[in-house]
Amino acid sequence: MALNFRFAIVSDLHIALTHTIWDHPSRFHLVEVSIPAFESILEHLTQLDLDFLLIPGDLTQHGEPENHAWLQQRLAKLPFPAYVVPGNHDVPVLMADEQSIAFADFPYYYRKFGYENPQQPYYTTELLPGVRLIGLNSNTFNEQGQQIGRLDDQQFQWLEEVLAKVKDELVLVMVHHNVVEHLPDQLRHPMANRYMLENARELVQLLKRYNVNLVFTGHLHVQDVACSEGVYDITTGSLVSYPHPYRTLEYHRDNYGRQWLQILSHRVEAVPDFPNLQQLSKEWMGDRSFPFLIKLLTLPPLNLPIDQAKELAPSLRDFWATIADGDALLDFPQFPHKVRHYIQKYGAIANTGTPTLIDNNSTILLPR
């Protein structure tokens, strides 16, 4: 049976009312543009015939009650339904402190946006006839109270029970942490692994078993489309960091069962007080990139001496901005072969060695 719908994704909003902005000199995020940039996006989205909006986590700067309340009230005014899941910034502590809400409080703020049962930090809901959303919680706390990105056993069991009951529905999954690697060896890289779900491989296997092909994530702040064993992880960059992207997507299934997803990406070009947001934001990221680059070059797998890392880092000033932009093509022929080859791996290059530019605007053909 034919099925067609249109939706949007905006991720990692980091909403911060002006008086709540938590400033520190090395931050990559321009949280001061969060609200005007979000308003700019909503102005565009309300002109479209959208069926729903997905927001895959990090809704607020750092879990502040005022920022959660502002977003809750703003989403309630939209002409289309919105659905959210928590990011690590939304529930940074298990018990409430002077800055942030408690982990258990989150669903109560967003009862109209997926959490009909606020006593449970994950949910499933029918988006449209024949279309089901599963919103997962990827934030757990270990015995020391440290936050980690993982689905606990109880949630895994619930998820399998939900999937086993699905009959003749398209299932979309939304979760904050990445479930497919978007960076080279992301699961094991000492800098990148924290953006992956610890038990990502188990989740991919479960989704594969039940023929679930589409997962929408955030957290990494880059535009990227990655696939593992037929499971596509479409991660969307952050509202508050370069290139300030968002996506509109259209799903189509014809009467023969052929199905595809069309992805179109957009950028917030300007907001009040930031008339040239794209250029300023890229420079902002580059200005703060040196410590990040030194870590990248001196940690495994490169393990460069610090003096060599300091020599190479300035040439990589826009490295992360280029990756965040999506469809990156990276080559530094002046670098030593090992370093040049490693940096190339971060680009949009298929296993065949040819560019594969699918991160921003593309059509994904899905299995029947």
Automatic annotation (TrEMBL):
* InterPro entries in alphabetical order: Calcineurin-like_PHP, CNP_phosphodiesterase-III, Metallo-depent_PP-like, Pesterase_cyn
A molecular function (GO) held by this record is:
metal ion binding
One matching Pfam family: Metallophos
- Looking at the keywords, is Cell membrane present? no
SUPFAM superfamilies the record matches: Metallo-dependent phosphatases
Q: Does the keyword Nucleotide-binding apply?
A: no
Which keywords are on file for this protein? Hydrolase, Iron, Metal-binding
Tell me where in this chain the Calcineurin-like phosphoesterase domain is found.
5-222
Query: Could you say which protein family the record assigns here?
Result: Belongs to the cyclic nucleotide phosphodiesterase class-III family.
Q: Which PANTHER family match?
A: CYCLIC NUCLEOTIDE PHOSPHODIESTERASE CBUA0032-RELATED, PHOSPHOHYDROLASE
Name of the protein described by the UniProt record: Calcineurin-like phosphoesterase domain-containing protein
Upper classification of the organism: Bacteria, Bacillati, Cyanobacteriota, Cyanophyceae, Nostocales
